[in-house]
Amino acid sequence: MGELLQMKKYNSKSAMQKFDFLLLACSVVLFAAIQAGFSMDLIGSFWKLNIILICINIIMSASLNLINGYTGQFSLGHAGFMAVGAYVSVILTTNFGAPLIAGMVLGGACAAFLGCLIGLPTLRLNGDYLAIATLGLGEIIRIVIMNIEYVGGAAGFTGIPHLTTFPWVFVTMIVTLFFIKNFVNSTHGRACIAVRENEIAAAAMGINITRYKVMAFTIGAAFAGIGGALFAHCFYIINPSSFTFMQSFNFLIMVVMGGLGSLTGSIAGAFVVTALSAALASWPEFRMIIYALALIFLMFYRPQGLFGYVELTAYAPFNKLKFLNKEGGQK
Amino acid sequence: MDFATLFVQQLINGVSLGSIYALIALGYTMIYGIIKLINFAHGDIYMVGAYVGFFAITMMRTSVFPALIISMIITGILGILVERFAYKPLRHAPRLSVLITAIGMSFFLEYGMMYFVSPTPRTFPAAFESSGISLGSFVVNGQQLLIFAITIILMALLTYIVQKTKIGKAMRAVSFDTETAQLMGIDANRVISVTFALGSALAAAAGVLVGIYYNSIDPLMGMMPGIKAFVAAVLGGIGSLPGAMTGGIILGVIEALVSGFISSTFRDAAAFAILILVLLFKPSGLFGTDTQEKV
Question: Shortest Cα distance from A36 to chain B (angstroms)?
């Protein structure tokens, strides 16, 4: 509901463009601030790694949100697509000396292809059955990778060049967020939201529901692959156990904690979950207990998550930004 | 060993593994049938059952059967408590919230247990000594016999409770249509509690039996079997008790055959491949009934 109201606010194209520039300017400032923090040694290597992980997790949770939150298809196999992107990209960069961008593009493409292939039959299922089927498929991907000797099997792939840098992840994250934001606000994205709200009504309005479900699933998988490529080049080794269904649960928790159908929520969820687990790293025995309790109590008291179906930009202070509404024609 | 002998031996191993899955799957299918929740914490209830059995044998020095009963009672109570505190407040919440709570509960049980008993695996005492029987060239060992016997007894008991007693009739009614059942004077909350108690007790029995069979237990042992048991429940048709029993045994046999003849690393993949095939071609499972979606 919040989104529909939000759409009404920008009924002129130029207002929306201006808003995009504002967001972009904010992200440039944020980037400069963090980069300055790195170069002046204000941020130690532990937090530097965690900031990179937060950015990757934002890519993962935003792409999962497109599937789970905007299209309403409950997928639990996101780690599988991440694994595909990770392995394809490390083969390219490590064995063939390709640059990171090539690995990201091809990794994303392979994950998208697989997503489309898996999505076509399974997206006919709904609710819990889809959840458990995608969970199973994610595990199958992992087990198949574990049995390929070429990529090191269960022991993992070693000798990966350390190519993921903060500028890379930050730029990719911004591109991902803008892509998903614009997709959701496009005709196709509206169709996806219609599918979420009521499949039968959407079909009656002439929306090809299978097409939009598969479209959202494929795009989500593509970004998961890109996220996987970035994740793989953070460390010198990856192994299949980094991509179990626990990891998919983790992304799901970020999405739900932040709020389904809200990109601001995905950012907040990825930030809170990653920062929390980093902050509690010194008490490993309590970390997961606190995490579990936080999850249960969140569902009791705020089941829609921090920003359920609402973007931060829909809140009052943003509506008061005069220059946005001046040409918007809505007084 | 020739092919036929190996095949029969794997079949025996498969049925004993499958009995474990069947016991866990019964709880899944009952809980799903009654509140439409994939109880992700069910696998961890099974883990708690194994630990209670372990402490009953090592600290209280009981033999296997009292340990099994103590474990079933304590874990049954735990099942009721989990439902009361985590799922009952969300009875009318969206399905996703309850599912996330179940995942949270699963983490809570796993890591709470890890805090109390340390993450290192423990050796389950060899409390059950039996020579087993050898039939020609293949062997059914004592633990396997124990698993078969206990599983058959528990399944018979459960079938009796569900089909012949008043509470069983109430369970079937609530599972069929909760609101109508309540209008007929059935206390749905009590029935749901009983369902959780029964399901958890069966999982606890499976936990103790696995401890005896594999001799090793750890706080994360419930993750995979939990998901596999759900696969078994879907295979048999969710909500159907004979379905869960058959589904569990079929899954166990297929896994044993895959690890015996192809490679043990592919056994988990086989389980999930079956799940996906079942979902695509017969989503209602072997014993399920088809439902039509109405506008």
Answer: 38
- Does residue A2 lie within any of the structural domains? no
How far is the C-alpha of B237 from the C-alpha of B133, rounded, in Å? Answer: 34
Q: Which residue of A has its CA nearest to B114?
A: A285
CATH of the domain at A77: 1.10.3470
Point out the residues of chain A with pLDDT beneath 70.
1-14, 312-331
pLDDT in tens, B79-103: 999 999 999 888 888 887 888 899 8
Domain positions in chain B are 18-222
For residue A163, the enclosing domain spans 13-326
- In this prediction, residue B130 carries a pLDDT of 67
Domain membership of residue A6 (yes or no) is no
Q: Is A4 part of any domain?
A: no
**Average pLDDT value over all residues in chain B:** 87
Tell me what pLDDT residue A55 has. Answer: 94
Residues of A in contact with B284 (CB under 8 A): none
B56 contact partners, CB below 8 Å, separation of at least 6: B62, B66, B67, B70, B71
Report the DSSP beta bridge partners of residue A16: none
Q: How many domains does chain A have?
A: 1
- Least reliable range by pLDDT among A201-205, A210-214, B57-61, B107-111: B57-61
Indicate yes or no: CB of A285 within 8 angstroms of CB of B111.
yes
* Position A229 in a domain: yes
A283-292, long-range: CB < 8 A, 24+ apart: A285/B111, A285/B114, A285/B115, A286/B115, A287/B111, A288/B107, A288/B110, A288/B111, A288/B114, A289/B107, A289/B108, A289/B111, A289/B112, A289/B115, A291/B107, A292/B104, A292/B105, A292/B106, A292/B107, A292/B108, A292/B111, A292/B112
Q: How far is B234 from chain A (nearest CA, A)?
A: 9
Nearest residue in B to A146, CA atom: B265
Task: Match 């936990």 to its residue by tokens.
Answer: B207
The label of the residue with tokens 């007790």 reads B201
Interface test with chain B among A200, A296, A298, A309, by most B beta carbons within 10 Å: A296
Of B108, B263, B280, the CB nearest to A296: B108
Q: Say which range, A270-274, B127-131, B149-153, has the weakest mean pLDDT.
A: B127-131
Q: Which residues of A touch B32 (CB under 8 A)?
A: 128
Mean pLDDT calculated for residue range B12-23: 91
Q: Give the dihedral sign, CA B18/B23/B27/B29.
A: positive
Q: Of all residues in chain A, what percent carry a pLDDT higher than 90?
A: 37
Q: Token pair for residue B10?
A: 């794997």
Please give the pLDDT value at position B127. 64
Please name the residue of chain B whose CA is at the shortest distance from the CA of residue A298.
B101
